[in-house]
Design brief:
This protein has one helix and 56 strands. The protein is mainly beta.
Length: about 550
């Protein structure tokens, strides 16, 4: 078929245009944009938070430092949001403490910080997405957008949603019941105290964190006059030479180990068992079933509702159900075994994290020949470089994470998902609903949630946190794997497709699909810059 002169001319003009575009790209495929220019005495605060770019490329947040006045500046997309000082009397941190940071949002930040007043005292503030609260005398360590603690007039308060708890002396509670009851320990003036629903008890030489049930039962172990005691709902037992922290059930049943006259005993609801050479804190169920391990005549035994099994070189009670199912691990001839309702499995180099249901379903991890495995109801899965503790619900469904070739995966009832760069948490309830929170890639700063197979983006991970830039490295490919990107902070350039590019290493880098380009950020002298390197290729039209 013949091509008309006009069509040929149009194709030639199109070809010339493409060649001109290609020539321009080949001549200078890289663009450089200055995002922020620091002042003459300003520098990036290198040892703290540094979050610069998102996939939009020109959004950033960072902390800088004035070298003359030693002030910190929180910069958000070019605007100075807050300034903080250093050398405070009360502050645990010398700079900003972020609960949330997302540069692509208009007010995508929530943080706490301190400033020095005219009276030379330090004052604390909280900024929640542009709404500032304070001044306070101090702010608690566990700061979040939903809950934070603060100090006023020498007493502590905690804001949890719309409700404010307090005042508290010396600290704030970490857990509450649904009715607002609470219990916690705190240290003040070199002495320990327990706070039970606002009632302060002490001082003590030491006090463990109290146990608290939903119904309001509480218990805690403390040391006074060099003797140990256990307080269960206001009734104190002791003093002992030594004592392990107690176990407490929802109805108020309790169990603990204590030492008296050089021997160890077990107290289960005021029933004393022993003496022993040593023992571990008992496991106790709401129905009254109990289990613990103890040492006698240099051998370890498992005691399960008066059933004594042993001796072993060592043993640990792993699980006990309300209907009497039990599981424990023990060491014999240098090898570890697992016993589930009398059935023995093993031997292994190591075993741990055993889960058990009332129906008798079980799951645990073990190590063999340097590799890790998961055993779920006799089904062996592995080998892995590492394997997390399995979660098992009453339906027999299970969930765990594992590592292979330095990448992480999730196993839900035999179905694997991944790979991921990091996995932060796993949840599985008795309705078989599961959830996993993870980070996909090293150069992807977002966290994700997989809930029953549906993935959603949660937000930024860690705000671009680097403790040190030494040996910080980035390496990835374009989706078609035709182009490669590599950067290491000890080299003053990046490498794209084997070519040395630019004059500085990358802090963050990614592939921009819309622009078919590698994009990265760098610090160059006083400038925070963004580079874009086009990967566009020219394809000649078929004449």
């Amino acid at each position: 078929m013949k091509i008309s002169f006009l069509l040929k001319l149009a194709l030639i003009i199109t070809l010339i245009h493409h060649i001109q575009v290609l020539s321009a790209q080949e001549a200078n495929p890289m663009t450089r944009t200055v995002l922020y220019l620091m002042g003459p005495y300003e520098e990036i605060y290198m040892d703290e938070y540094f979050a610069e770019s998102t996939l939009k490329g020109n959004k950033y947040a960072l902390i800088t430092r004035n070298t003359i006045f030693d002030e910190r500046y929180f910069i958000f997309n070019g605007d100075t949001i807050a300034t903080t000082n250093t050398n405070f009397k009360n502050a645990d941190t010398q700079t900003f403490d972020f609960a949330y940071l997302e540069p692509t949002e208009k007010k995508g930040y929530s943080f706490a910080y301190y400033v020095k007043g005219d009276d030379d005292e330090s004052y604390a503030f909280i900024n929640l997405r542009g709404t500032e609260e304070g001044p306070f005398e101090d702010i608690g360590k566990n700061f979040s957008e939903e809950k934070y603690s603060y100090k006023l007039a020498g007493r502590w308060y905690e804001k949890n949603g719309e409700r404010i708890y307090g005042p508290f002396k010396g600290g704030v509670p970490e857990k509450y019941t649904s009715t607002g009851m609470y219990a916690f320990n705190f240290y003040e003036n070199k002495e320990w105290y327990a706070n039970i629903n606002g009632q302060v008890e002490g001082p003590y030489e030491y006090c463990y964190m109290p146990s608290l049930t939903e119904s309001g039962n509480y218990a805690y172990t403390y040391k006074e006059n060099r003797k140990w005691h256990v307080n269960v709902n206001g009734h104190t037992r002791g003093g002992y030479e030594d004592c392990y922290p107690q176990t407490l059930t929802g109805s108020g049943k309790f169990a603990y180990c204590y030492k008296e006259n050089g021997k160890w005993y077990v107290n289960i609801n005021s029933t004393i068992m022993g003496p022993y050479e040593d023992c571990y804190t008992p496991t106790l169920t709401e129905s009254g079933n109990y289990a613990y391990c103890y040492k006698e005549d240099n051998g370890w035994y498992a005691s399960i509702n008066e059933l004594i099994i042993g001796p072993y070189e060592d043993c640990y009670i792993s699980a006990l159900t309300s209907n009497g199912n039990y599981a424990y691990s023990y060491k014999e001839n240098g090898q570890w075994h697992v016993t589930i309702n009398g059935i023995i499995m093993g031997p292994y180099e190591d075993c741990y994290s055993l889960a058990l249901t009332r129906k008798g379903d079980y799951a645990y991890n073990y190590k063999e020949n340097g590799k890790y495995y998961a055993n779920v109801n006799g089904q062996i899965m592995g080998s892995y470089e590492h394997c997390s503790s399995p979660i098992l619900n009453e339906n027999g469904s299970y969930m765990y994470s594992y590592e292979e070739n330095e990448r992480f995966y999730i196993n839900v009832n035999g179905q694997a998902a991944g790979p991921y760069y990091r996995i932060f948490s796993l949840k599985l309830d008795n309705n078989d609903d599961y959830e996993a929170i993870y980070r996909k890639k090293q150069n992807d700063s977002y966290t994700y949630r997989n809930k029953n197979g549906t993935e959603t983006v949660l937000g930024k991970f860690g705000y671009g946190y680097f403790n040190s830039y030494k040996d910080y490295e980035l390496e990835f490919y374009s989706p078609d794997r035709q182009h490669s990107f590599f950067s290491n902070y000890k080299y003053k350039y990046v490498v794209i497709d084997g070519k040395r590019i630019g004059f500085s290493p990358a802090l963050r880098a990614w592939y921009d699909e819309a622009k078919n380009a590698f994009v990265w950020n760098s610090i160059e002298d006083k400038e925070i810059v963004m580079y874009e390197y086009s990967l566009s290729t020219f394809v000649a039209p078929d004449l």
